[in-house]
Amino acid sequence: QQSELNSFLWTIKRDPPSYFFGTIHVPYTRVWDFIPENSKKAFQQSHIVYFELDLTDPYTISALTSCQLLPQGKNLQDVLPHDIYRRLKQHLEYVKLMMPSWMTPDQRGKGLYADYLFNAIAGNWERKRPVWVMLMVNSLTEVDIKSRGVPVLDLYLAQEAERLRKQTGAVEKVEEQCHPLNGLNFSQV
């Protein structure tokens, strides 16, 4: 029942009201039917929408990509223990081999190819910092691959906000997310 769902929506009582909605980074199709109507209505009625990051801004995407890289001249092989690096490389070879069987007919119909998708997700993995490789590996599962091409909830809402000509913004800069993750030491990762 819609009325029984936890909306993750907080209302700041002012005129007009402000709302705070907690999202998660999963394909929106996995959660959209479970988002209560009060949350969807608040989004529809809002004229200004702020997101964690502006995922529609090319600079944001470029900065996110750059911050994931090891310092110039360093490779993952230089910073990971040999055994972990070898196991990681074998796992990525396995994923690349399996990816064609993980893809849906709908994805193939939209022109997505396994090699392209693998390179889009894992390309340049040997230059990435360990924390970002860990996050990448966690997203290289059959379930996640089958949902590639479907925007995560944050991006879907940002695209909807643009489509509805709402004013948008971001509450964080890429650096505010990147630096803490890049500051983790190897044992923390």
Automatic annotation (TrEMBL):
<keyword id="KW-0879">Wnt signaling pathway</keyword>
<dbReference type="GO" id="GO:0004222">
    <property type="term" value="F:metalloendopeptidase activity"/>
</dbReference>
<keyword id="KW-0479">Metal-binding</keyword>
<dbReference type="InterPro" id="IPR002816">
    <property type="entry name" value="TraB/PrgY/GumN_fam"/>
</dbReference>
<dbReference type="InterPro" id="IPR040230">
    <property type="entry name" value="TIKI1/2-like"/>
</dbReference>
<keyword id="KW-0325">Glycoprotein</keyword>
<dbReference type="GO" id="GO:0030178">
    <property type="term" value="P:negative regulation of Wnt signaling pathway"/>
</dbReference>
<dbReference type="GO" id="GO:0046872">
    <property type="term" value="F:metal ion binding"/>
</dbReference>
<keyword id="KW-1133">Transmembrane helix</keyword>
<protein>
    <recommendedName>
        <fullName>Metalloprotease TIKI</fullName>
        <ecNumber>3.4.-.-</ecNumber>
    </recommendedName>
</protein>
<dbReference type="GO" id="GO:0006508">
    <property type="term" value="P:proteolysis"/>
</dbReference>
<keyword id="KW-0472">Membrane</keyword>
<dbReference type="Pfam" id="PF01963">
    <property type="entry name" value="TraB_PrgY_gumN"/>
</dbReference>
<keyword id="KW-0812">Transmembrane</keyword>
<keyword id="KW-0732">Signal</keyword>
<keyword id="KW-0645">Protease</keyword>
<comment type="similarity">
    <text>Belongs to the TIKI family.</text>
</comment>
<dbReference type="GO" id="GO:0005886">
    <property type="term" value="C:plasma membrane"/>
</dbReference>
<keyword id="KW-1003">Cell membrane</keyword>
<comment type="function">
    <text>Metalloprotease that acts as a negative regulator of the Wnt signaling pathway by mediating the cleavage of the N-terminal residues of a subset of Wnt proteins. Following cleavage, Wnt proteins become oxidized and form large disulfide-bond oligomers, leading to their inactivation.</text>
</comment>
<keyword id="KW-0482">Metalloprotease</keyword>
<keyword id="KW-0378">Hydrolase</keyword>
<dbReference type="GO" id="GO:0016055">
    <property type="term" value="P:Wnt signaling pathway"/>
</dbReference>
